[in-house]
Each structure stands twice: as structure tokens, then as C-alpha cells.
Amino acid sequence: MQTTKSFLSDNSSGAHPLIAQALIASNTGHVEAYGLDSYTRALEKRFAEHFGKNSKSFPVFSGTGANVLALASATRSFQAIVCSDMAHIDHSETGAPEKFTGCKLIGVPSINGKISPESITPFLSGRGSMHASQPSLISISQATEVGTVYTLKEIRALADFAHAQGMKLHMDGARISNAAVALSCSFSEMVRDCEVDILSFGGTKNGLFFGDAVTFLDPALADGFLYLRKHGLQLASKMRFISAQLLAFLENDLWKDLATHANARATQLKSGLEQINGVQIVYPVETNAVFVELPLRVVGPLQKEFPFHLWKGDNQARLMTSFDTRPEDVEDFLALARELIG
Question: pLDDT tens across 88-128, in order?
């Protein structure tokens, strides 16, 4: 049994017991394949409760799969996708968005991982020129790659800006649950009410074995998605095993409980680190990520006992908490950091 205490990633955690129970319970008998089962039908209705009766949602295997298909559904190959210079779609998806959409990605300088209408505007100067890729979609990550969140006002401003420019707004919601908890809002308030067009809905990072979804707030954008999902290798034949997990995730707001716990552990970690001399918090801690500069001499010994990734350079640590990170895990990490730093 693996007992290592890790701050590597929320992808490194296991699955929540209620998710495991749901997966096992769905493993009974024969049902129709390819999403024609009762679990997927029930999930479609549950997503519609969150995102509106006209929304369309489709389970997929992974976050990258969700992003790639979401972007492909709303772009043509001569167009461009505007995103943060830290965006997961630009730096952590091995070129899949460019390969599958044919679009150019335009990375806009960000502040704490976030972009704005003001920062995007200078990158739209080539619109209308036959010699330039045409920006047609803005993609934001919520929460961002550094754990910060766009406020509802900021999301709505980006949506209004995008629509005024004839563009669409996509939200990479790999950590949407953590963001919703941070903002004390519902999925509906963050997405539908802010007029996001397409959402990559994340579950894997918050307690699922696997499984995410693509949600279209504009149902017209979902035309052809059934074919695109198969074409993009994201159609699960035994889809009930994804849908059953997502149903359990949404049942009784389990998503909220798990994200609340993960966020709280990051806050606990931040509060303790701030009390240690020689340690500097790099970005605001708003969800389940803590970015911190540590004395170089303690990085190796800390990583040996509590694995984590380095973000920039040799001493900027990215510490990710999960639904199963225990308060005592955080306290043990802090105690060792204090001992090593002296």
C-alpha cells in the first residue's frame, strides 16, 4: 500500500470512496454502449440542472481530451485561440490543441495567471488581414495554472468582450470545483450566468478515477459533437463507468465537500509557511495550490519526504493539495521545513 505523503498533484490522489462505490454499483448487467445507457441519460439531466435546460454535456476520458474537443468544436484551422501565457492548453498538452484544431495559440501575458480584455486587445490587431490567423476564441483556466481564480465580474467582462468581438469564450474547468468553492458560488453562477460558451468540466482532479465532460452553453456549438468525440478518440464504449462517477460527484454536492477540504489544506499550508523565515509565497493562495520559494538547500530533503514538483528554477515549489490531504500531512511538512531551515 502506498503511504507516501505527496504534494505532487491532485492527479496523484486516489478516488473518493463514494466515487468507488458508484463505479462498483454501476458494474451490473448489460446496458447499451456509447452513452445510450441510463447513467449517461441521468447525467445529462443533472448537468442541465446546473447549466440550463438548453445546455448539452458530453462525458469524455480526460481533461486534455475535453479541452481539445471543446476548442475544435468552435474553431476553424485558419483561426487562432487566445489564452494565458501560462495556459495548460499551451504548455501542458503536447501540442494537441494545435494538432487537432489546426489553430495558432496566442499566449497573452498574464498577471497571477489571469488575462483581461485590456491584455488581449493588442493581440487582435491582425483581425481582418488575410495574412494573419484570425482570433476567434478566448480560453481561460478556472482555477488558473497557479491556483488563482477569476472573479465572476472578471469572467463576465471577458465574455462580454469576446462576444463584442464576435468570439467565443471557453473555460478550462479542470479545477472548476475548487474555484466555485473559493468564490462561494454555484457552477451555474460561474458559467451560465457569466455567459461562458463552452466548458471543460473537470472531475479527475477532485476525486474521480477518471472522467471529465464538455458542456456547451450554446447548444448550436454542439452540432456534430457526437461525431467529433468519436473522431477525437474520446468516445467511451462503456460510458456508464464515466457517467456513474460524475453522477456521484454531483450528488449531494460531493464535489463541494472535496474541493472545500483541498482548498482548506492549501490555506493551512500557506499560513504555516508564512511563519517561516526565508520562505516566500509567490502567488495568492485561492484554491488548492501553493507556490513558494524555498531556500535551495532544503528543497532536496523536503522532496525526499514529501514529493512535490518545482515550478520555476531550482527552488520554486508547487505544492498541490487534494481531497485526501490530511491536516497532519500539512503539519508534518511544515515541521520538517522549520527543522531544515532552522
Answer: 999 999 999 999 999 999 999 999 999 999 999 999 999 99
CB 169 within 8 A of CB 135: no
**pLDDT value of position 1:** 42
Is 224:20 a contact under the CB 8 Å cutoff? no
> Which fold is adopted by the domain 18-252?
Aspartate Aminotransferase; domain 2 (3.40.640)
DSSP secondary structure letter of residue 181: H
Q: Which CATH number fits domain 254-341: 3.40.50.10470, 3.90.1150.10, 3.40.109.10, 3.40.50.1100?
A: 3.90.1150.10
Contact 207, 321 (CB under 8 A): no
Scan for cell 458542456, then name that residue.
215
What are the structural domain ranges in the chain? Answer: 18-252, 254-341
Model confidence at 313, pLDDT cuts 50, 70, 90, reads confident
Q: Is 111 helix (H, G, I), strand (E, B) or coil?
A: strand
Q: What is the rounded distance in angstroms from the CA atom of residue 14 to the CA atom of residue 3?
A: 12
